[in-house]
Structures are given as C-alpha cells and as structure tokens.
Predict the structure.
Amino acid sequence: MPRRFISINPDMLLSGTLLVLILIAYSVVVYVFVVAIAVLPSTAPRTDYLVPWWLNLIAFALIAATLVPVYRWACVGVRELVYAQHDDPYALIAKVNAQLQTMTNPQRTLPALAETIAHELKLPYVAIETHPTLNEKSAAFGISPVRAEISRLPVSYLDQPMGALLASARSPGQPLSESDLALLRDVARQLGIALRTAQLTADLQTSREQLVVAREEERRRIRNDLHDGLAPTLSSLQLQLGAMRNLIRQDPDRAEASANELREDLRSATAEVRRLVYNLRPPALDDLGLLGAIRSQAQKVSQGDGLSVSVVAPDLPPLPAAVEVAAFRIAHEALLNVERHAEARRCVITLMPHEDDLTLEIRDDGRGLPPDAQAGVGLSSMRERASELGGEFAVSSPAGGGTLVCARLPLKTRAEIKGESSDGTTFTN
Amino acid sequence: MSRISRLSRPTALKIAAAIAVVMQLITIFVYTLPDLIRGAAPVDQISGPGGGPPFAIVLFGFVVSIVALVAAYGAWRGQKWGIVLLIIVTVLGTLQGMLGFLGAPQLTTRIVALVGVVLQLVIIALCLWRAPKPAVA
C-alpha cells in the first residue's frame, strides 16, 4: 500500500500560527481590560479575583462583537507579511534579468519566465501576453483561483505596446498588495525591453534574409538579361561579321546589306545595354542631376493632355546616390500615377533638403484617392524605397482635394550618424 | 488624507522596531537584570509582597527580551523573519504583561504594565501595517 504524505505548506502554517497568536492576545487583552475596571480600584495584590458574571458577559460580548473585524484586519496584514513581503525584491529582478539575457528563443523563455515570477511571488497564476504585432506567442503558468482578481500590467517599450503581464491574486477578495504590484511593474519594464530586443533581432534577421534574397534576385535578373538578351545578340553579331567578311570580296552588295543589318543589330544591342544600365541607375541622374532628371520627367509628362507639372526646389546639395535614386523613382512613379489615374490639371513636385533628410512632395488637384483605395504595386514600391533607406512614406487626400504623396528620405545612414557622434566625443583622463 | 494613513510600511516597521528596543531595554535594565542578580527566591516568598515574580518567569522574560532585540533588528531591516519573530515575542510579551497587570502589587506597576501592553499592541499593528495604495486619478 503506498504511503501517503501530507504536504504542509510552511507559509500557510506560519500565517495560521501568527493569526491564532494575535487573536488570542487580542481576546486576553480585551478580557483583562474589561475585568481591570473592577480590579484597578483595589491596590492590594490579589490572586483570587471574583469577577462578577455581568462583567464576564460584557467582556465576552465585546470580544464577540469585535473579533470578526479584528480577524479580517489581522488576516490581511498577516497574508501580506507572509506572502507579499519581499525581503530582496532585486533578487527577483536579477533572476528575471538573467533569464531574459539568455533569451535566444522567446517561445521557450516566456513560459519559464512566467513560472519564475509565479514561484518567486507565490502567485497561483501568471501570464505573459504578447502584442498581436509580435511574432512571439503568449505564455502562462498556473491556474487562477475562482473569482480571484487578475491584475493586468501593460508591457511596453517607450510608447510602443509590447503586451501585458497578468497576475492573479492569491485568493478571492485579496487583491495583490502594492509591493507585489510595484515588483511586477519592474518586471514588466524589463520584459518590455527584452521583448523589444527580441522583436528587433527577429526584424534584423528578416531584413538580412530579404537583403540576401533581393541581391540574388537582382543578380539573377541581370544574368538573365545578359544571357537571354545581350549574349545572343553579340553571338549573332559575331556570326554576321564572319559572314560579312566572306562576302566582302565575293559579293560586295550582299556584304553592304549585311553591314546595314549589323548596324541595326548593334543599335538594338546598345539600346539593350542602355536599358540594363537604366535599371541599375537612371543615366539622367548622372547627366542632369536629381533636380534636372525630375524636371526632365515633368516636362515629358507636361507635353501630354492638359496636365501642367511644375517642380519647386532650391539648389540641392550633393546627395547620396541611394537617396537620389529613391527620390527619382518615387517622383517618377508618382508622376505616372498622376498622369494615368488622377485626372488632374496641375501637379506640383516639391523637393526640400534639410540638415538630415530630403522631403519630397507630389501634390495634384485631381480626384483624390477613392475611399476604398488599396495600395497597388506602385504605392508599395514607393513605400519600400523610402523604408529601405529608413525613411517614411505617406499618401493622402488633403482637405483641398487631390492627392498628396509625401516621402522623407534620410541623408545619413544610422552608421554614419553613430560615427559622427563618436568622432565628436572627447575623452579626458 | 491624514499623516498616519500615509505612513509607509518601512517607516512603520522602523517605528515598531524602535518601540520594541526601548521597551526591551527598559525591561532588561529596570526589571529583569536586578531580579536575575537577586537570584531565585525561596518558594514560600514567591509573589509575596516585594518578593518579585518567580525566577523561571524572570529567566523566561530575559530570554524573550533578548530575542525581541534580535527580532527588532530584523524588523528594522525590513526582513520577514524579523517581523514574524517580533510579532511572536510581542504576543508573548503581551500575555506576560497581562499577568503582570493582574498580579502587580502596586497601582504604579499596574499602570506601567498597562502602558506596556498598549505599546505592544501598537507594535503588532505596525508590524502588520499595509503600504498605502497610490492615489488613482
């Protein structure tokens, strides 16, 4: 027959003992004080007190009337002392920090963290809810007692919500103490930083993967263009040249015709090379600069049906190549949208360089965005170009009508800004 | 909000520890040590006029006082063991004080015992003091 062990909860034993001692002391004190009313006038030491029955009755009535509120008060105090008294709150914070520092996989760490918090604070239920925008799943430990209050503490980093820390009261009607909540708030703060770090790490990894994929896609596209377009053309030119050489003496007329064909083929090969080069970087940017290239585009569009495009910009300082390309492509795409969809009569492109960024605005007086507009390939492409540089992109229908496309492109990368700030630092011994 | 309700828990514990230390030092130097030095009285003189309390009670009171001083140190530091120990020894001290109150030969001694009991109740209340809830807008 298996032996059954009775498990004794030391905290419960301690709180029970303290409660009983306090109630006994209270009852004795009340009884003696009531009896003392009859005893005090006598100065002689006595051991044979004869307490009148009515005085006993009063003492017991007083104890009976006050014992329940005293019990409730003592119960709350003792529970808080035994369960919520944290001798070293930083021990828990340190333990949580240690777990968070080794967080390589949040989906494994968060349940362990919930368990640690529940054990350290002697809480029956702890849950860590993550914000829907995060990839991490929520984690929970324990079961909340029926009708026990659950405190919800927001987990955030700066102003960005990262989730919530949920902690159940130890028993119904006994909400968590202020010291419990203060400690949980500290834990929530650490959790917010850790979740943000995990999110950034995941974003960085995704971004790296996207970069690799994009680079490989670009290489494949260039390879295909060279292999399928330029290489056969050059091979064909080589064959034509060989044939022409044979014909020069034998049949000069056919040789001349072949030379004409060769010239046409060479022209198309040159156009192919130009197309490839334009896809890498629009040549107009090198020939005319950003402002000139955009003005040239604006002029081309203005020659169409009744649309007038003007470019407003001061003289631009030398800009990074990536910013030039992004600004030109965004302006080009936006202009195409205006021409195709906006039904506008007038469009203004504004370029405004600032110390740290370049602002590009394309505003038209057309019909504006339809209420159920969804971002198409063009808008997504413009947004991606801005975000690739760490900038911002927005498209809206302003109050005056029309459409406003606005992009802010930073002129310095974060690494450059960091480099500048470290260069300006002076060290003294 | 009154000042007493704004009392923080660490301050309440420090006050409780300070009261306990003062009380125990007075008990040790004014009552317990002279009785200990006097030694055990013959059985027939126990609790007689001017005979003092039984020696076992004096010895017990001395041990309780020493433990209370240690507990007061723990409570001052805000340690759980100190607070729990202080509550236990204070409850024992309260019961002891009640005996002294009933058995004291003079009115003055009774009043002193009464004041001691009240102070011990204050110590217990301060040990179970809850931190005030922050104001909610």
Q: What stands out?
A: Chain A touches chain B at residues 14, 18, 21-22, 24-25, 28-29, 32, 35-36, 39-40, 43-45, 47, 49, 73-74, 76-78, 80-82, 85, 87, 177-179 (CB under 8 Å).
